[in-house]
Amino acid sequence: MAGLLEHYRRAKGGIGSINPRDMAQLGEDWMIAAAAGAGIGLVSASIGGLDKKIAGLPVPVDGAIAVGLGMAGLSMGGESGKILKIASIAAGGSAAVRTFEALLKSGLHVKGELEDLGGGYGGMGWGGLPFHGQHPLVGPGVGFGQASSDRLVESAKYL
């Protein structure tokens, strides 16, 4: 029981030691980020998505917004510049999430949700490595997919 009380005391002391000014500043920063997100949502709705092709290359519009807001914030300085820099970070976060999501989906061959790595695609998993029964780098008996699952189920029956 003393251990639980000690953890409670530490947590209460940690929360109690938060500077109210820092808490208020964090709230303001969140509001700026939310406003930037709402603005990006408005832009996306009005132009039909955030990825546009310019000279044959896909350009994330929210990434371009992030660069523009950042440059404007740096050039303005003061409180207005600080607000624009925070909004730039929010827009850059949006662009980074979408960009890396697309990159990871294409590299992992994901359709909507994470699927069984060995299922579909002709039994090929990440990078074209076969995962049914034998992994070329690890050896026989180690793998992912339906064949490995079946072996695990069969082994579990004997436990």
In words, what does this structure look like?
The protein is mainly alpha-helical and 159 residues long. It folds into two domains: 25-108; 121-157, no CATH class. Helices cover 64% and strands 8% of the residues. It has helices spanning 2-16, 20-47, 61-76, 78-108, 146-157; strands at 51-54, 57-60, 134-135, 139-140. It has a two-stranded antiparallel sheet. The chain has a two-stranded antiparallel sheet with strand order 3-4.
Residue share in helix: 55-70%
Question: What separation lies between the terminal Cα atoms?
Answer: 37 Å
Please state the structural category: mainly alpha
* Beta-strand proportion: 5-15%
| Spatial arrangement of strands, main beta sheet | 1-2
Low-confidence stretches: 113-139, 141-145
Mean pLDDT: 75
Shape: flat
If you compute it from the alpha carbons, what radius of gyration comes out, rounded to the nearest whole angstrom? 25 Å
Largest sheet report:
2 strands, antiparallel
What are the secondary-structure elements, in order, as H or E?
A: HHEEHHEEH
Q: How many structurally independent domains?
A: 2
Number of strands: 4
- Oligomer, anyone? single chain
Number of helices: 5
